[in-house]
Amino acid sequence: MSLWIADADPIELRPNASEEDLQVIIRAVYRQVLGNPHLLQSERFSSAESQLRNGDITVRGFIESIAKSDFYKSRYFEYSSPYRFIELNFKHFLGRAPQDQAEISQHVCIYNEQGYDAEIDSYLNSEEYLDNFGENTVPYTRGNRSQAGIKNVGFNRTFAIMRGYASSSLGGRAKLISDVAGNRPTKISSPARGASSGTRSKRFRIAVSQVGSGPRVRQSNAVVEVSYNQLSQKIQNIQKTGGKILSITEVS
After folding, report:
1. Does the global pTM surpass 0.70?
2. Nearest Cα to Cα of residue 85 among 159, 189, 161, 194
3. pLDDT digits (tens, 9 = 90+) for 59-111
4. What are the start-end ranges of the E strands in the chain?
5. Fewer Cβ close by (within 10 Å): the C or N end of the chain?
6. Which alpha helices (H) appear in 55-124, and where do they start and end?
């Protein structure tokens, strides 16, 4: 059973990796950073692949080569609005959606004042990136878990910009601009036709941690299952009652 939006098992390049292991890493990076493209042989980053194979660069360095390439720039910068470009950078490099307008404004300023490469570096050199992925782990979706410093509103926003590996990152319009700018919750909407068939008939399992009230403070974990149509409301109810969502997993 596939996960619609869930933390993947981290894919890490380890010392003395075989060629087969290396190809797994390379495919995972292309899938994560380039948004599920179909790459022609001529479009692959052969030089950067060789550097990775030889140990001259790390996985983070390989990602940097792609992110600063004309290919990435033409797909996700030149034909996207500035807000959409920043949404995609969060998705591709940090595995989550922007939290609020302040985060987006910060990155708009970085690009306007320091340029394109500085905007890419602001993700890849960030403490958040290094703490979660280090030098040799491929970034992955982290939006379905409660995390220190990450607001719960990020659940719905991550749903909005990530539709699983069958979806593409192409598209020039920002998906979150109104909700983020207005500090409004983001509704979970149905994926575009063809992106994920049968989504409305699926069910999802939500693991929740809840702190109880009373003379003795107790923390308990619970698991609930809901349909797709109930998912957004259930997430909001959990958040309103102070619960923390540990994971959201597609079960059928």
Report:
1. no
2. 161
3. 999 999 999 999 999 888 887 778 888 888 998 999 888 887 788 889 988 98
4. 203-211, 219-227, 244-250
5. N
6. 59-67, 70-76, 82-89, 101-114, 116-124
For domain 199-250, give its CATH number from 3.30.1490.170, 3.40.630.30, 3.40.50.1100, 3.30.565.10.
3.30.1490.170
What is the CATH architecture assignment of 19-143+155-181?
Answer: Orthogonal Bundle (1.10)
User: 219-227 and 244-250: which strand pairing?
Assistant: unpaired
What six digits make up the tokens of 120?
């890419």
- For residue range 149-180, list pLDDT tens digits in order: 555 555 555 555 554 433 444 444 444 444 44
Average confidence (pLDDT) over 36-53: 84
Q: What amino acid occupies position 88?
A: L
Distance CA 152, CA 146 (A): 7
Q: Does residue 145 contact residue 7 with C-beta atoms inside 8 Å?
A: yes
Phi and psi based region of residue 134 (left: phi greater than 0; alpha: psi -120 to 50; beta: remaining): left
The domain segmentation of the chain, as residue ranges, is 19-143+155-181, 199-250
96 and 158 in contact (C-beta within 8 Å)? yes
Under DSSP, is residue 212 helix (H, G, I), strand (E, B) or coil? coil
pLDDT, tens digit, for every residue of 200-226? 566 777 778 776 555 554 567 888 888
